[in-house]
Hints:
By secondary structure, this protein is an alpha+beta fold. The chain folds into 3 domains: 12-173, no CATH class; 207-374, 3-Layer(aba) Sandwich (Rossmann fold), CATH 3.40.50.11350; 398-730, Neuraminidase, CATH 2.120.10. It has 13 helices and 39 strands. β16 (459-464) and β17 form a beta hairpin. α5 (207-220) packs across α11, α8 (266-279) crosses α9 (292-304) and α10 packs across α11.
Amino acid sequence: xxxxxxxxxxxxxxxxxxxxxxxxxxxxxxxxxxxxxxxxxxxxxxxxxxxxxxxxxxxxxxxxxxxxxxxxxxxxxxxxxxxxxxxxxxxxxxxxxxxxxxxxxxxxxxxxxxxxxxxxxxxxxxxxxxxxxxxxxxxxxxxxxxxxxxxxxxxxxxxxxxxxxxxxxxxxxxxxxxxxxxxxxxxxxxxxxxxxxxxxxxxxxxxxxxxxxxxxxxxxxxxxxxxxxxxxxxxxxxxxxxxxxxxxxxxxxxxxxxxxxxxxxxxxxxxxxxxxxxxxxxxxxxxxxxxxxxxxxxxxxxxxxxxxxxxxxxxxxxxxxxxxxxxxxxxxxxxxxxxxxxxxxxxxxxxxxxxxxxxxxxxxxxxxxxxxxxxxxxxxxxxxxxxxxxxxxxxxxxxxxxxxxxxxxxxxxxxxxxxxxxxxxxxxxxxxxxxxxxxxxxxxxxxxxxxxxxxxxxxxxxxxxxxxxxxxxxxxxxxxxxxxxxxxxxxxxxxxxxxxxxxxxxxxxxxxxxxxxxxxxxxxxxxxxxxxxxxxxxxxxxxxxxxxxxxxxxxxxxxxxxxxxxxxxxxxxxxxxxxxxxxxxxxxxxxxxxxxxxxxxxxxxxxxxxxxxxxxxxxxxxxxxxxxxxxxxxxxxxxxxxxxxxxxxxxxxxxxxxxxxxxxxxxxxxxxxxxxxxxxxxxxxxxxxxxxxxxxxxxxxxxxxxxxxxxxxxxxxxxxxxxxxxxxxxxxxxxxx
Length: 737
């Protein structure tokens, strides 16, 4: 905690209001006489005449404040016109340089957009509790001025700041986050993200985010000349090797807990770096990491592999601590060194990185067209490895497996009509991004040294695209998958898919369950309606609100479908449709077996988010998302009220569900991993720590899942008990536009 020396009676201070703005006032001790103030509180009289008791730790001495704010910046002695001035004071005490930079950019962008008059914008990092103040008294009071020029430019002066305060043209705020402004980039590239917290989007940096970041850097950020000179001198000493280098940034230490996808072994990291250098024809690697031990080991290994390894001698913590939190380290010098590394990375030929604000900054400082990838991505075009498709990332929903009913004979009889399609090279086409995935045929394992261990299937994988609503098929063989083919359009992109009597059952945006020919060669094949859910709900419950369709399953000769309204009032529940047969509408045989006109938390109610569903013998299991549970519905119950039980509870945001190993185990995907349950719902264990896996299914000795943060289709060994590793079946990385 910050414990400034006690301020004297009559001291002029900046004092906060309830909206986290700072106003000039004066400490008046006589107002506190006879008052029972909490410990550490002082009475401040503002210029408006109002007096408040405030914590002394929140008071900022005004005498010398303009000097502390501007000391060290190039324009601190120059005069400016009588413009308004706005200052953002940072009181974020636990974050590093680039996280604070992105908060500052968020304020600058928001303030500039909201200002109707020309305004000098300034950043205040003078609070000594900010981690960047580690390193002693020899540094400038305002840590921002150590690294960057003030956004207001060279015209601002201490006298003009004093005058702005006297004339009421100075606004100082200490607030951050919503509802005032978002962190610039909304944590893209720095956090895997789950989409549940306002202002924290997370996930990958796409091309649009990179363009916006580069533009914001050009508008607001000017690196100090002495730091730019360090970058130039180091790059000159490497001759031309920087331009021929793959920048590899590996963020570990405390980030391993926040972003589990950063947890790569040294062997896996070296393998991926070698693969990208080979694919991009780059003979050098510029290696950066906050883990000094890993950095040294990787450098030696990559050197033995024939790569020229470049490394900047940045000041780092040697005790496994994050350097920006190591109190024994000169943290200001560490931050400067990392800024130098970032600027060098931005000059390399390409970037391969983990989730980190440092990596994002390297992209933002780079020139347009700079290629950037993440560990776990498929190799770019030109790779000698088996071809993998490369598409935009997305947030996944659920998956299912096409069982024996898909019929090997059906595929063989149509092989001649389908023809043999060429292997598909890397692409950035936005259409095919899986949200539901379905696999047909047997699978066979094979090893290939790619960033994730490579696995193969022989047969077909089906998924839906969130951008176009298309149902897409991948025809896969032992040497990879062919170009994705759209076979149906207008689908509900976050609903389920289920194999049924040699066909697929899918859900459309018009709230119908339709029969799809899985071997169609384009999206012109007719869709046969099996169930009109909208009409059925109208018959069952009368007028109702809007809703979305979720998971679908076939159990005890009936179709079951989940519906729900997550963001507005509307129906939520499970519908059972009996007497369904190929090519025939069974809407009239549908009944409600769980839920009703509104979402709820009761034993016969579901939350509004339509999630996953699976058949387990004589019961249907439904993930009840925001109620943190799985419900069990008797498959034979014809209509509500049914004897519904809580199968499992305490599961945070359950989404996908699959019954595996012949019904002996149930897998449930959560935001933070995959849980394994016994057949009675007991003994939840961590099947995998891979977060945001969305949907999943079982197929011929594999568990297939969709990685919502990357769009990849993964496989797991279903007999694995805990902490199971994923293998890559199909790669879908790239832009998330």
